[in-house]
Amino acid sequence: MSLHAQQLPQPTPHRPPTLDDELAAERAHLSDSRAALARMRERAEALFATGDKVAGDRYTAEQLGRHLARRVAELADDPRTPLFFGRLDFGSTDIPATSNTPATSNTATSDVATTTDTAATTGLDLTATADTGATADTAPTNTAGAAATTGIEDGDYTEQAASAGYGEHAGRRYHVGRRHVTDEQGEPLVLDWRAPVSRAFYQASARDPQGLAVRRRFGFDNGMLTSFEDEHLDRGEELGTASRILTAEIERPRVGPMRDIVATIQPEQDELVRADLAQSICVQGAPGTGKTAVGLHRAAYLLYLHRERLRRSKVLVVGPNRAFLAYIAAVLPALGEVEVEQATVEDLVDRVVVRAVDPPAVAVIKHDARMAEVLRRAVDAYVGEPTEPIVVSDGSFRWRIGLEPLHRLVQETRAEQLPYALGRERVRARVVALLQRQAEARRAESPSEAWLRRMGRSKPVTTFLDTVWPALTPDGLVHALLADPARLAAAADGLLTPAEQALLTGQDTTRTTTDAPSGTPEATAPEGSGTPASSGGAPGSSRPRSGTKLGRTPKATRWSAADAVLIDEAAGLIERPGSYGHVVVDEAQDLSAMQCRVIARRSEHGSLTLLGDLAQATAPWAATDWRVTLRHLGKPDATVVPLTVGFRVPADVLAFANRLLPLLAVDVPPAESLRRDGVLTVRTVTDLVGAAVAEVGAALAHEGSVAVIAAADAVDRLVAALAAAGIETATAADAGGGPRVTVVPATEVKGLEYDHVVVVEPADIVAAEPRGLHRLYVVLTRAVSRMSVLHRAPLPAPLA
Ligand SMILES: Nc1ncnc2c1ncn2[C@@H]1O[C@H](COP(=O)(O)OP(=O)(O)OP(=O)(O)O)[C@@H](O)[C@H]1O
């Protein structure tokens, strides 16, 4: 009987297995599992090659082809990552837990940590319910027996399995890994970490062993199984965060893009990962507490549990910028999930090309929640009152609809509050229905489809529609609003002050509010904003404050990033937007109200995982209260859960950064680092660039990545100096594979991490933007092992 057999081996009376025996057996199980995965993949590839021949029609062939291609990709095996990382030995009444595998622990320490009841601390209700009726694709070779033990039936979970106690697992042993692997008979060799039974790996504790006698964690080096660590939960042993394997994992040098944390997810993180699909959650976590990791693993978990539903409705991950998305891009594919969309908010609002920059004061207004109401009113204002009856000639007939019914049908449609374009079509359909009724009464027969279409497109009907419900495009609406101060004034009445309106339309505010002579100096045009163009309005409007360069048409207009958000809002009012099944939003503290609405439209029928840290908020409209953000996101009742255990930043470095917290005016719990190993140096220097080059040279003697972080305007100088010293550098967007040293402007470092961080001149980072102290806090929390702070100017007070 091999080690992975369903029942635990009986202890040998003669000689208990030694550590070497155990390790050898586990390695054999790893080889067996890899071979089985290779066979599963071969089978999937063979099916992929012949799939189109068995499909009846082209559509089915395409669907099948996509499904099988995905399946092949999901079964990819990376020999550098362990196929399994844990083992669960459930206790049995037949086999006393203590007579199980002996208390072997070739790396374990004897620390026994007390656990907390995480469900109680997070307040989450985790009664996960599985999709029913989902099709098989997770484990197509499962037998009924395997299904009974794993809870997997045709690739989805049975309610029964999810709710079963531990009893059905008594005396069984499971290896837990990145994906499900079965042998030729369909017996599970490795259970997917997301399977209900795997939950015990993350959640069982000495206080609540969840049926486990022993939990084993494996240590790996480059895909080679090198050690294991046993916790005899049945004897009250528990390592918690004292696990050496966990410590090694969080202290390992970082190279390249982000990796999954599936082997070491902590109980409070697991609570969030396994929260029910219907539940929207907001995670307030200090730097390095694993928010991004939790969000990505939650996406993978939900896809596994609700595969079919989410395959149709899709999962979206929203990140702050391209560099961040490149950094996290590999995590989900490594977990076998290859179909999650990843985008920035800018990607989502890409109906227009952004070619202009708004001054901050204008951007702040455009991102304000009041703009949603301004746009709603602006759309509403297009709906007019009928002024003439409709008369349609139809061969020898003339149909006539009087003003009264026309008024009524416009009012009825208005009351339905449909998206504007649907409303227009509804009005058309109602007019045609009235014409049809007349035609039927006169001809005593129903008109044909072609007749209905012809009537709907007839000139009198179209003219009527263009008068009472004219066709609108999203960019056309925003263009008209910004180009016409009177139209904006009507829509913004009581919402935006005249001065704010003037900023939007580019009117000279002094003209509207005072009688100042022309030639009043205007706000400095931002870099790249070009020459001011006419806003197409009244005299005096050729002095735009808005960055938008209005052309005669929307197409000829140079739009700003904030305009793109307004145009998306307009699109949401005009058309019915599509919604994702689940959206994960990272660095959510920087979302403006209007950006929140961009996401709200895309998650209206789904749920959200919101990740962020109010202390790291750097945008001018930054959040200070998650409740407000959640309201804008359309999920006011989402649970806000804190994460406070830091896995990235060493304790000394974190303590240094945390000195800034009192200045950041946010009420957030500070992080407590799990890491005791880091090195922090703070040096006053006279030659900043020279000192930075020297620091980088010294840092390269260690393993792992090195980043030089400075104010944006110092980056070129630093890159040049490093190049002159023979040190090649990458940019933040180059996710791994290139040079070990990256030079990053402080503005682009959010969400990223490096082993050794050299911070150049904190005072310049603070001075570069209004929320510079928050930016500095972000910068000071990027280091995994060592941080050197170089300064010539005095440090901000709490750091000095
Ligand atoms: N349970 C864990 N086991 C091992 N490593 C972990 C664990 N949780 C988080 N980490 C690691 O800690 C680091 C920080 O995680 P992550 O980037 O998700 O934090 P964050 O809260 O999003 O940080 P930030 O606030 O800076 O965006 C990453 O390297 C991640 O892999």
From TrEMBL:
Family matches, as Gene3D superfamilies: P-loop containing nucleotide triphosphate hydrolases
Positions bound to ATP: 285-292
Entry keyword annotation includes Nucleotide-binding: yes
One term of GO molecular function: 3'-5' DNA helicase activity
GO cellular component terms attached to this protein's record: cytosol
Chain residue ranges for the region called Disordered: 503-556
Keywords assigned by UniProt, alphabetized: ATP-binding, Helicase, Hydrolase, Nucleotide-binding
Domain annotation UvrD-like helicase ATP-binding: ranges: 264-650
GO biological-process terms attached to the record: recombinational repair
Skewed-composition ranges (Low complexity): 503-521, 528-548
Name of the protein: AAA family ATPase
